[in-house]
DNA sequence: AGCACGCCGACT
DNA sequence: GTCGGCGTGCTC
């Protein structure tokens, strides 16, 4: 009987309910080269649209019913067997599609591009040509001169029209052009772009004066760039309140030009060729290292928690372990939160391990990222340092995965595939019999629980370097402050402490968790709160650009003085953000050098870092900012930390609010005591008696852990159960609501017929933020046990609802153990 | 998500 | 009689 080669392919663009490996016939000319892990292009669906795919397996079969592959892109597989298995695992765990999972494992630069293109159907006759409009003639001439098929945009451009013109398709209808999908191997550059004037300043000024030459929004953007000289696209959007399309329009008109500023310095530049010697470990470090290395030597997959306060020298322990693992010729992944992945961190690894280190993070250009990825895959680097997605680095023979600051939320992906890097790390460690090492001073409750119950080994490292003392913590009751006539966001006590620091030439850090100037604006007459038209979120006033902004969808309008509801002219601006706090401090201490740091001041890739560096060099007295000031670099001269309001993050409607607040406060308070003389921390709150605040003040993680686990055991929250969130979003509220209700019924039915699966589901409800960017959001929360029975139940419900018309305009997702419940 | 197939209304 | 509405089902 005849036998064919059949390839099983993960196809792009499938929905969950019809995602599975699809079989394709392998044409003879690809027979010998095709291997699992290679990219292919396949025809899919009734229209045989070309789609990207990844070969999962190659088999012999006599089944002739399948379509043939169109293109085999790679002769050598790009994705290893381990990663193919990981993709299947991710699908089972996170309810994504196979292709979505596989995409995580390839750098963006290897994404093929399939574009609709046009070419001549036949050489047009003179008569045919003369029948056409001048624009059409223009296009036809362009196509006949081109070497290959032409994409829509260049075609439109050739005739001086914009890409939405229907002319190309009209020419197809008349049988002059044919349309096809073409595959391009290299993607256009990503969008971290800068713009500057492509015309002279005088011309720009003339344009601003002119009538009708450019639109009002374009003028606004032009003015911003004229003032700034050059700016990132993001900055222009922020300061002129326009969307990206306005800027691209100006680029197309030849008024702006785009250029790429290399924000990254050459990673190897200035790094000594000779490797730095291992530092000697303190006794405590040595003990921790001994414990960890003997666990690693077991040769079995295992996991450890290194519970160590910041500044206890975790990194030296990591490096010694890495030495051992590399000596065995096994490889290492080190994950760090985005904010800690600074040139200093990187330089430390380069200095110690040289070119054996590869760095993967979002600041690399597409090309740089591809180069590093290739180098890792080829075995040119055995140590990968990076952020969340580096967990998919194409290393072979893994021996160790380190996740530093393991409680950080950035390790959980917020979009599909909704994976947690920690879980992926566990998979990879199991596959390679490697060790997983989690490290933190304030581990997630789940992780510490696992360490307490023996699933992870617990190793401590709790002496601070040089025996630095804990800071004195002063709680300030803001209720008293208001009662005694101080309405400022800065309490008298905090002001005194800042004053002291200024006198002594010591530095202070102030944490405030909201950006902007005022956090909301309301009408004194009718009480109307100004909200974003696309989101159920109050608009924030930004003084820097005098606009009201939405932090969720980017919407902004010019700040106003009249109520849009009742036209009343008393709009109350209230709530304090970083900008207002900065102003308050400047008014209180006019001579102090104040640095503000939030996502608005720090938009360039390295600007945070540069700001922190300046602060570290004593160029400023006071640093005010959001979370980002709590993490990252060490500042020996900081002796005072102020938390302007501990309350808003503490009283969020989220069972993890306490954990998150504790972790943030502990980190920021810890910043005040990193040298011999003890520092001070001032915490402003309406509830000074709150236990979480008290324990954070004492930096007592274990007491916090005890009280928090008691609470979670009582009310059944992780780690005593798992939580699965089902999310529903869409433009129409009734459609979203109906879908959520239907899903709820399906879940109930499924539970009814699987009585042995422990689940508790809540009625569907609007999400905490009921609408974002024009989409309504509903959700169902389930308390469950994340085992294969439960996952199979979820998978079957998701599959069944994909077929129902109720879900036509609604997107549905399942998120296992989401980290924030907003 | 797209696309084809199929079964009812109103319009030449 | 048939053109086109969109409900239903399938994607190797
Ligand atoms: Zn009003
Ligand atoms: Zn918005």
Defining traits:
single chain, 822 residues, GIY-YIG endonuclease, Arc Repressor Mutant, subunit A, 7 domains, 6-stranded parallel beta sheet, 34 strands, globular, DNA-binding, PriA_3primeBD, zinc, metal-binding
Q: How would you portray this structure in words?
A:
By secondary structure, the chain is an alpha/beta fold. It has seven domains: 4-106, GIY-YIG endonuclease, CATH 3.40.1440.60; 119-178, no CATH class; 191-262, Orthogonal Bundle (Arc Repressor Mutant, subunit A), CATH 1.10.10; 283-413 and 420-461, P-loop containing nucleotide triphosphate hydrolases (Rossmann fold, 3-Layer(aba) Sandwich), CATH 3.40.50.300; 472-515 and 578-712, Rossmann fold; 520-574, no CATH class; 722-816, 2-Layer Sandwich (Alpha-Beta Plaits), CATH 3.30.70.360. The chain is 34% helix and 23% strand. It has 26 helices and 34 strands. Strands 14-15-13-16-17-12-18 form a seven-stranded parallel sheet, sandwiched between helices. Strand 22 (540-542) and strand 23 form a beta hairpin. The radius of gyration is 29 Å and the shape is globular. The N and C termini lie far apart (59 Å). One zinc ion (ZN) is lined by residues 532, 534-535, 537, 550, 552-553, 555. One zinc ion binds at residues 532, 534-535, 537, 550, 552-553, 555. It binds a DNA duplex (12 and 12 nucleotides) through residues 6, 8-9, 11, 13-15, 18, 20-25, 42-47, 49, 63, 65-67, 803, 805, 808.
